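#structure-requests
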Amino acid sequence: MKKLLILGGSRYILPVIKAAHELGCYVITCDYLPDNIAHKYSDRYLNISIIDKEAVLDAARELKIDGIMSFACDPGVVPAAYVADRLGLPSPGPYESVCILQNKGKFRKFLKDNDFNVPEAERYTNISDALKDIGRFKWPVIVKPTDSAGSKGVTKVDDPKDLKKSIEYALSFSHCDEFIIEEFIEQKGYSSDTDSFSVDGELKFVSFSSQHFDKSAANPYTPAAYHWPTSMSEAHQAELTSEIQRLLKLLKMRTSIYNIETRESLDEKAYIMEISPRGGGNRLAEMIKYTMDVDLITNSVRAAIGEKTVDIVQKPYNGYWSDIILHSNRNGKFKKLWISDDIKDNIVETDLWVKPGEYIGSFEGANASIGMIVFKHKTENEMISAMRNRYDLVKVIVE
């Protein structure tokens, strides 16, 4: 029985644990939050901070694990690669490459140095240096922690006088006390946030979504809904596929799932915004199974324990799909989920994580989600209409 160590304990790991058990693995989960739901389903729990890579390495060595992975858990990606590197275990790619992908500042520099389309960006470790550079950027700008996911700590800054406050906010979400300031790319249509997969460095499966945001949310840059197939132009999909493959080759990546964010700009350029060698949150890999019948989760486990992947092939979309990330735009006690009769027949799955009377927070980041609903639509027009009117069709009611 192979031992698999999974870093993190969120509910997004539950299908990974299930897949690992089906493959006959002994599953160990690890983080510093013993009440996290995933630990109820693993075979063993380790109370260790996943960002303490030396402590994770010591535990992994003592347990004689056969594989390690971080799925839908950004802070665990670099420690997992570090442990795999030190113990000679399967890894998405070289440790140095994973570090580049996981740090927004290093990633932007790598893209620029290798002639990819990339917004003007700079990485900083202190506020005063950033404030001296106000004149170098085209405004507005985006300020982000270099090492945070789920849109936590991200703000758009229209006026230079607000920059210091946004930097302080970004730093409050950074483990390494770093942030970047980058040019704001005016997107054309919808951005894409979805999962893809490489085998021995070859991009065997790539997907693009259309990502929606809630402009009324506390954090309007947190993904709030998705639809498939994407509305992105076929030309830009082809260009991005080629550029993603070029990037993976340059970084000498191996076999891995990737959460990839891309977008088209108003000036008709296509940008790779983020690539992380892990499964995405918001159950994106599960949505790929719905929309294209490709099992990225089981193959992620196979890759982590050194087994051959199966059926990672490009497939057409199986109809028109969307999902809504359930959330509240204000703090309060959850009362109920209201769904219009006009959309009920399209529901494939409702995944609600809270009960009436439970306190829920406003949508400041992906960690404030309270569930999701999966829909299948008969036509593209029906899908687009449902997305456009989603807050009239589905309402989270708090009191």
